[in-house]
Design a protein that fits this description.
This protein has about 240 residues and is α+β, with helices and mostly antiparallel strands. Helix content is about 35%, strand content about 30%. The strands form three sheets. A five-stranded antiparallel beta sheet has the order 5-6-13-8-11. Strands 2-1-3-4 form a four-stranded antiparallel beta sheet. The chain has a four-stranded antiparallel beta sheet with strand order 7-12-9-10, with no helix packed on it.
Length: about 240
């Protein structure tokens, strides 16, 4: 008899009509997290010596629920309108990240942006989605996360005055992480197309925006290095 669920072997009859396994529970849970095992997937359990739908196996209940909760669509940002109709230069001056932009540049920036809002728990950006623009957080708090094999890891919490999404926009690559709204948020959004227009018609503004973004990215790199150094020092103390 097996000593605990961890030592029980399982087989999976996958959607390609191929039987995979035997594997231990740890591997089976990873397959659930990766979406390879769904609720209706047939799984053979050594414990009961029979094939059953995955949803009927208690050991998979939490993992299946977590996977489907993750797949459920979350609220996305909704457009409130043009920034020029709802915010002023004086409002933007409160943010240190825009301190390098003068009056005329801030006025031009507002013209090219839109205002978005998102409710608490909504998804501002999803990993692997197109880098179609960048956001500046006007109010609220966000969480940048990665989900790997079902493990939800917080990379950073980002609040008002910070930018998100600039890396994917400039590199023209998919988003590298999810960004969730921890609170209701108001966002200033500049599309990739809008930034290209600025570069062509208003190069001075483009240069100022790039400098502001470079400063933010440099601060993040410094903070990341400090976290790594702190972690390394902490681990060294335990050696």
């Amino acid at each position: 008899m097996s000593n605990g669920n961890e030592e029980i072997h399982y087989k999976v009859w996958a959607s390609d009509n191929v039987v995979y396994g035997p594997v231990l529970l740890k591997t089976l849970l990873e397959w659930v997290a990766d979406g390879r095992v769904q609720k209706e997937t047939w799984v053979f359990s050594q414990e009961v010596n029979s094939w059953k739908p995955a949803k009927s196996l208690p050991v998979l209940g939490d993992a299946l629920a977590a996977y489907h909760a993750e797949q459920a669509p979350l609220p996305m940002p909704t457009k409130l309108g043009k920034a020029i109709d709802s915010i002023t230069v004086d409002y933007l001056r409160q943010f240190d990240s825009l301190a390098g932009l003068g009056q005329a540049e801030l006025e031009q920036l507002i013209v090219h942006c839109t205002i978005m809002k998102i409710e608490e728990g909504g998804m501002i950006m999803k990993k692997d989605s197109p880098g179609d623009g960048l956001y500046m957080i006007l109010s609220g708090e966000t969480r940048v996360r990665l989900v790997i094999s079902g493990q939800d890891t917080t990379l950073a919490n980002v609040g008002a005055g910070s930018f998100i999404g600039e890396v994917a926009m400039f590199s023209q690559t998919p988003r590298t992480a999810d960004v969730l709204a921890l609170t209701p948020c108001n966002l200033l959004f500049m599309s990739t197309e809008a930034f290209r227009t600025i570069m062509e018609s208003e190069p001075k503004l483009a240069s100022s925006v790039l400098f502001a973004l470079g400063h933010v990215m440099a601060d993040r790199m410094v903070a990341g290095n400090q976290r790594l150094q702190s972690k390394a020092s902490s681990e060294f103390l335990w050696l």
